[in-house]
Amino acid sequence: MNYRHHFHAGNFADVMKHVLLLQLLTRLNLKDKPYRYIDTHGGAGKYDLSEAPAQKSGEFLSGIHRLMQLQPGQIKKSPEGVQKYLQLVEQLREQEGKGAYPGSPWVALQGLREIDKATVFEMQSDVFEQLRHNIRDKKMGLHERDAYEGLLGVIPPREKRGLVMIDPPYEVERKDFPQLVELIQNAYNKWPTGVFAVWYPIKDRAMIQRFEKKMIKTGIRRQLVCEICVWPDDTPIGLNGCGLLVINPPWKFAQEAEEALKWLLPHLKMHETGGSFAVKWLVGE
Fold first, then answer.
1. What is the pLDDT of residues 122-165, one digit of tens each?
2. Positions of the site: Interaction with substrate rRNA (predicted)?
3. Does 234 qualify as catalytic in the annotation?
4. Which of 44, 52, 151, 275 might form a disulfide with 269, Cβ 3.0–4.6 angstroms?
């Protein structure tokens, strides 16, 4: 496997994913019962944007870097979820240096309460060692394991409630993400009350439409699509946008996601006349 998230950390897609992740956890925190957070592809947990991989790609410059340049007055006008995300990034930067940027396990750890637990998978040995070094908390269990088989082994969790973040390296997927659809279907069958958040890249709109059709055919109800595209759909760029498919989204999450993406778009888009965002039900109740 060639994919390394170190090259993409802090880009617009990370910003979108982490803002929505925090909003999901905030919603789950409204109930006093504990829950389990499961991250299928945890990565290194934290990254240094001043190091060679991030500097080589420069993707963070059109992502988190743009937001960190905003004035306090501009940030105060942003939705609460965006403000919380930026506060956490600043907190990490103050602790570990201006190049520090969190991965989803670290972001999730800040959103969990003492009564909640987490399970994080990472199958690449060298990245897993970085994850173990970067994330040290008794609430979070780390597993050097392939999530395509590991996830089904840990659900449903004993907490009964929870969120699964699925963000696989899409170099192993093809066409309309058949392996991913199969994983989602099998996981949902084992845990139909769980919340599943599936991140996906948008490079070819036709491919995304095929993916959506396959997801509709699964028969799974309550599928919410959240998307942000920083380039027009027909731009021949490696990544025009990204989406988060949320199954069983918590109450009011759709409204909060729409507010966040509406605010993020003008700050992250790469083309004056292009770019878009959308929050829509792929499948309703």
1. 999 999 999 999 999 999 999 999 998 899 999 999 999 999 99
2. 3
3. no
4. 275
